[in-house]
Specification:
Strand order of the largest sheet: 1-4-5-8
Number of helices: 10
Radius of gyration: 21 Å
Shape: globular
Low-confidence stretches: none
Structural class: alpha+beta
Order of helices and strands: HHHHHEEEEEEEEHEEHHHH
Strand content: 15-25%
Helix content: 40-55%
Distance between the termini: 37 Å
């Protein structure tokens, strides 16, 4: 069940995705580049700050509304959807929850109106073991600044980003309790963004290495408290998983919507493909799986909004949605045949885009571990 405001948001995003985004998707994928006009349009439509208060330039709606927007955009282009998702569920949330009033005024306003932000956690040696990170931040007492040294990799939206939330360890002797989040401007001397990765899917979404070579950050650009970065990242990623689940549900719906009309138009042996019982069983089951994943995603979203425990439900929703997205996108190519193996139909792009779902913001195995630990805690003596 959605509210009037959520339905209005969903409907406006559906129109935006169909009319403004859809004509550019194929070219952005071919160029492996995000169209700057699309980024600007996302800000103009309010899609980059759905939960942020209106006083900062946001829309002022809730987490479910953000998930609905991500889902609708993903039906057309999962690359743009993940930009919107990360900006909302990880970055806007981080400033709203942990930012000081001064940081909100200075940075949150920019994130709401015109500045893409990147979440810099992953490193070459710290993927699923994210908190084995080696990036360090050293306090310079004389200058009253933090000096950041290290390299992050697989950083989404980094080509477009004007701001970075960077996780670095301020005291390795404390282990993960030394990890701290810093706000770093793109213009900061010593920050460099590497070339974009040439990816299988979500190609328009930029993914780059980001290096910090003596980046100096003033004390008032610590986000949250020194040593609280570990807890902050865990909390943010637990919520972010729900957004990725919404993206994958939208992807599955997009592939399904692209394939089904063709099944009714294309005939074999004088009969529309959609009328063959064997095919009917397949698309009926696919529709059921999409709906099941969607229910799980929005159940987790509502639990999060209500302030109730949602860790297990978020992991289940992300795992289920990513598996459904891969399965449905693959089947859609099977149903439409050879044309589905070409860019003439969007099925092949959805198929490529689906693979990332089982990798980022927690691999499928990490989701299974999270679910298992939750079950153990429930039944352990």
């Amino acid at each position: 069940m959605t509210t009037d405001d959520e339905r209005s948001m969903q409907e406006s995003v559906e129109v935006f995705a169909r009319e403004a985004l859809a004509p550019r998707v194929q070219q952005m994928d071919a160029n492996a580049a995000m169209d700057a006009d699309i980024v600007s349009a996302c800000f103009e439509q309010g899609l980059m700050a759905i939960e942020a208060p209106e006083e900062y330039g946001g829309v002022g709606l809730g987490f479910t509304a953000a998930c609905l927007a991500v889902e609708e955009v993903a039906r057309v282009d999962p690359s743009v959807a993940v930009m919107i998702d990360i900006q909302n569920t990880l970055l806007i949330t981080s400033f709203m929850r942990y930012g000081t009033p001064e940081q909100k005024e200075k940075f949150l306003t920019r994130l709401c109106t015109d500045t893409v932000c990147s979440f810099c956690l992953t490193e070459a040696g710290s993927g699923s073991d994210a908190f084995a990170l080696k990036t360090k931040a050293t306090w310079d007492e004389g200058a009253k600044e933090w000096v950041i040294e290290g390299t992050k990799c697989w950083i989404s939206n980094s080509k477009e980003a004007g701001l970075f939330v960077v996780f670095a360890n301020t005291d390795f002797s404390k282990g993960h309790k030394g990890i701290t989040a810093f706000i770093v401007e793109r213009s900061c001397p010593g920050l460099s963004v590497g070339p974009k990765e040439d990816k299988l899917g979500i190609r328009a979404s930029s993914t780059c290495e980001v290096s910090f070579d003596g980046c100096r950050v003033p004390a008032d650009q610590v986000l949250g408290q020194v040593g609280e970065g570990y807890r902050m990242a865990i909390e943010l990623l637990n919520e972010g998983r729900i957004g990725i689940g919404a993206q994958m549900v939208g992807l599955a719906r997009g592939a399904f919507d692209a394939a089904m009309p063709y099944l009714h138009q294309r005939k074999q042996f004088g009969t529309p493909i959609a009328d063959f019982q064997g095919v009917q069983f397949q698309y009926a089951r696919a529709a059921m799986e999409i709906e099941a994943a969607r229910v799980m995603v929005y159940n987790a979203a509502r639990l999060k909004e209500a302030g109730m425990p949602f860790l297990r439900e978020a992991a289940m929703a992300k795992l289920k949605a990513t598996e459904v997205a891969q399965s449905v996108a693959s089947q859609c190519i099977d149903w439409v045949g050879g044309v589905g193996f070409t860019p003439a139909m969007p099925c092949e792009k959805f198929y490529r885009d689906a693979k990332i779902g089982t990798i980022y913001e927690g691999t499928s195995n990490i989701q299974l571990l999270t679910i298992a630990k939750s079950i153990q805690s429930q039944y352990r003596d």
